[in-house]
Design brief:
Bound molecules: FE2/S2 (inorganic) cluster, fe (ii) ion
Distance between the termini: 57 Å
Largest sheet: 7 strands, antiparallel
Shape: globular
Structural class: alpha+beta
Number of strands: 19
Oligomer: single chain
Radius of gyration: 23 Å
Helix content: 10-25%
Number of helices: 9
Length: 425
């Protein structure tokens, strides 16, 4: 007798359909041109966190190939964060060469024009030799910039259709208040992958692959049904963004969302159960227990996290349109960007944030997690370039998605809706 598979996630989103999804958007150069024009040059893009530029004059430069732009993000004397194009008003030299630093003013290295931290033009050598030059009219070109929960976003559209709050809050209002500001230490990697940005992001928006790609690393951390499936607890799809909630195995080191910060019986059980199968992981957790500078009880988290209220909730995947993956647990979070460099090339900027660890054991735990999560990331990356090459053979025109790959379908759907929508006159 055929087994009856209950499909339920897709049933709530009939507009997304259940049919095959075309792969042309992953390989077509004209499609990518439209993504650049209609998405990356028009929407809010995550570029960093406020803790990166704590003092007046602290800045970083973000080169955004998908927007054909280089953007200076700087904190001014009033404490505001400003973003402006890295283009001198005189003869267009880049104002800042360094990727991050501290400045009282920005001086162009070509002819010495000076700009303050708000981008105002304040000094022009041999000013009297110019013709009717009014410095007020020739500051650096400002870019829309705003902050949500400590995340800095910019928008290249001179008149953004939505404010950042209007963009974020329909899907993410109920996770506001997550202690991002207390989870500020950690590590980062970046790498260039030869695949389309959507193909890279897709590999992070479902747990269907975990039993296979991560079979030897973290598969034991995810809650598994009797048939071996790893069904998500729930999924939410909005106009732009999407979310997936995942249940874990609290007896594993990786699968215990309160490991290190909360400790207690669950952590002791994770250590005991991992002692044989994953002795180094168990040792790292034992060494790190009680070391975090902050503790976060699941009950104190914003209600939008673990929105199903499941006892074994492990983490939520949040995908902020278009390319920002934000995975949240009580004791750490991951902020990954899959930023296109071209149609078939993607820059992955991966950051993992933890609370500061105040003991040597805590530092050891952090070091262990750095390597463990790097291995997981390498496993995720291991399929991407092969998949891209295989898509480009043109042998298959469509991909087939199961119910638990709803977020992949939603991602394709939203991008396609925007790429193909009629430009309003
Ligand atoms: S190009 Fe910047 S001062 Fe001339
Ligand atoms: Fe993965």
């Amino acid at each position: 007798m055929n087994k009856v598979i209950k499909l339920h996630l897709h049933d709530r989103y009939p507009e997304l359909g259940k049919g095959p999804v075309p792969v042309e958007p992953y390989i077509s150069a004209p499609y990518f041109d439209k993504e650049q024009a209609k998405i990356f040059k028009k929407t809010w893009l995550h570029v960093g966190r406020v803790e990166e530029i704590p003092k007046a004059g602290d800045y970083f430069v973000k080169d955004l190939e998908a927007c054909e732009a280089s953007i200076i993000v700087v904190r001014d004397k009033a404490g505001c964060i400003n973003a402006m194009h890295n283009v001198c008003s005189h003869r267009m030299n880049q104002i800042v060469y360094e990727k991050r630093g501290q400045a009282r003013k920005f001086f162009c290295k070509f002819h010495g024009w000076a700009y303050d931290l708000e981008g105002k033009l304040t000094g022009v050598p041999e000013e009297e030799s110019f013709f009717d030059l009014d410095k007020c009219d020739h500051g650096l070109t400002r870019v829309a910039c705003d902050v949500w929960q400590g995340f800095i976003f910019i928008n290249l559209d001179p008149n953004p259709a939505l404010s950042l709050a209007e963009f974020m809050q329909p899907m993410f209002r109920d996770i506001e208040g997550y202690p991002f500001d207390k989870i500020t230490t950690g590590f980062q990697w970046s790498t260039v992958v030869n695949c389309n940005w959507k193909l890279a992001l897709d590999a992070f928006q479902e747990a269907y692959h975990v039993a296979y790609v991560h079979g030897r690393s973290i598969a034991d951390a995810i809650d598994t049904a009797a048939d071996g499936a790893m069904p998500p607890l729930d999924a939410l799809c909005g106009e732009f963004h999407r979310r997936l909630s995942i249940a874990g195995n609290p007896k594993s080191v990786y699968g215990n969302p309160n490991a290190v910060t909360a400790g207690g019986a669950a952590a002791q059980q994770a250590i005991a159960d991992s002692a044989t199968a994953k002795p180094i992981a168990a040792a790292a957790l034992r060494a790190g227990l009680g070391s975090a500078t902050h503790q976060f009880r699941k009950e104190d988290l914003p209600k939008g996290m673990n929105w199903t209220g499941h006892d074994n909730w492990l983490f939520d995947i949040n995908v902020v349109f278009p390319d920002f993956y934000l995975s949240l647990r009580p004791n750490y979070f991951q902020a990954y960007n899959f930023r296109p460099l071209s149609q078939g090339k993607t820059l992955l900027e991966a950051r993992v944030y933890y609370p500061e660890m105040k003991t040597a054991g805590g530092r050891f735990y952090l070091e262990y997690m750095k390597v463990a999560l790097r291995d997981v990331l390498l496993e995720d990356l291991s399929t991407l370039e092969r998949t891209q090459s295989a898509v480009q053979t043109g042998v298959k025109k469509e991909m087939l998605l199961q119910d638990f790959e709803l977020l992949v379908r939603h991602g394709a759907h939203v991008v396609d809706r925007i790429v193909n929508e009629e430009t309003k006159a």
